[in-house]
């Protein structure tokens, strides 16, 4: 739920793909709690009603009936839970109408690439931030570039794994505008816990405005500092990062064409502020050890110039 504590993301539903899953989760939790309470009550009863001095024991027929009754009750409950889970799986398998758009999402160690308009001239990619229009079903095609990850936005849908060499599909829909946190939930290495993303649901008008802005290439550098910073970027960063409208065309790291438009950087590890961007560049291995982003040591003047260039990527 937007603006709520992290726990609220797991306890509330914000779309039709997550609502049946949430109810199923509560039902299974209630079943588990009920079973634990019954077992605890039987254990307490047995402790308070020990055999007398005569050593009288439960008759064989009485014991058999108790075991049979317990087995039948367990079987019925487990079968009912299985049927309910299969029904929920069928309900959330596909949306009630054709998806409004398709987004190709690729998981990397340890970040997410979102690919929009793959078959259109306005094709672009962004990172760790997925924008969708409110009230519209959206198909998400999930791939992995390295190991098995899992895509999960608990307020919008259940978990779906991303598997190398395979495309898995999921759909999400947000009933209300807001920012919904997502997370990789399949252990994938040292920075698994720092592999978050955000789904930003907005009105159709705001979504189209964002889409049009993202589809444009980066603006040319307008100052001498930014021009020098662009040369530094080409020297240190262009092998991995892309900036559309420039010669930087790396594919192993996030597209930075509109870096300043994002709320977070480093897959949710830091807020997107000028200071944090430079901190990430200089101390990436301290912030996310074993990530593919190296520490880049710059002189104060070079750092100022690079910061001036990155400030143009809005």
Automatic annotation (TrEMBL):
Organism: Paraburkholderia fynbosensis
Name this polypeptide is given: Cytochrome aa3 subunit 2
Any single GO BP term: ATP synthesis coupled electron transport
Residue stretches making up the Cytochrome c domain: 224-314
Role played: Subunits I and II form the functional core of the enzyme complex. Electrons originating in cytochrome c are transferred via heme a and Cu(A) to the binuclear center formed by heme a3 and Cu(B).
One GO CC term on file: periplasmic space
GO molecular function ontology, one term from the record: heme binding
Chief localisation class: membrane
Membrane topology listed for this record: Multi-pass membrane protein
Start and end residues of each Cytochrome oxidase subunit II copper A binding domain: 98-213
Keyword Thylakoid recorded: no
InterPro entries xref list: CcO_II (IPR045187), CcO_II-like_C (IPR002429), Copper_CuA (IPR001505), Cupredoxin (IPR008972), CuRO_CcO_Caa3_II (IPR034236), Cyt_c-like_dom (IPR009056), Cyt_c-like_dom_sf (IPR036909), Cyt_c_oxidase_su2 (IPR014222)
């Amino acid at each position: 739920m937007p603006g709520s504590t992290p726990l609220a993301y797991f306890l509330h539903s914000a779309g039709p793909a997550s609502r049946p899953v949430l109810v199923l989760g509560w039902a299974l939790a209630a079943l588990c709690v009920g079973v634990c309470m019954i077992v605890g009550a039987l254990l307490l009863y047995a402790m308070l009603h020990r055999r007398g001095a005569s050593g009288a024991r439960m008759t064989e027929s009485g014991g058999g009936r108790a075991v049979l009754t317990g087995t039948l009750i367990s079987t019925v409950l487990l079968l009912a839970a299985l049927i309910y889970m299969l029904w929920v799986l069928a309900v959330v398998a596909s949306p009630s109408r054709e998806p409004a758009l398709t987004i190709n999402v690729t998981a990397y160690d340890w970040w997410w690439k979102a690919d929009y308009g793959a078959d259109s001239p306005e094709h672009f990619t962004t990172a760790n931030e997925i924008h969708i229009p409110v009230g519209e079903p959206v198909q998400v095609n999930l791939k992995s570039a390295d190991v098995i990850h899992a895509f999960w936005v608990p307020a919008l849908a259940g978990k779906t794994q991303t598997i190398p060499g395979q495309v898995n599909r999921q759909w999400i829909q947000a009933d209300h505008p807001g920012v919904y946190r997502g997370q990789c939930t399949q252990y994938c290495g040292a920075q698994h816990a720092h592999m978050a993303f955000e789904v930003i649901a907005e009105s159709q008008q705001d979504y189209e405005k964002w889409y049009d802005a993202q589809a444009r290439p980066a603006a040319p550098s307008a100052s001498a500092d930014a021009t020098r910073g662009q040369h530094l970027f080409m020297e240190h960063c262009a092998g991995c990062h892309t900036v559309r409208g420039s010669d930087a065309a790396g594919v192993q790291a996030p597209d930075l064409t509109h870096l300043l438009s994002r709320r977070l950087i480093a897959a949710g590890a830091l807020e997107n502020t000028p200071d944090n961007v430079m901190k990430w560049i200089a101390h990436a291995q301290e912030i996310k050890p074993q990530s593919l982003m190296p520490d880049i040591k710059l002189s104060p003047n070079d750092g100022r110039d690079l910061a001036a260039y990155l400030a143009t990527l809005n």
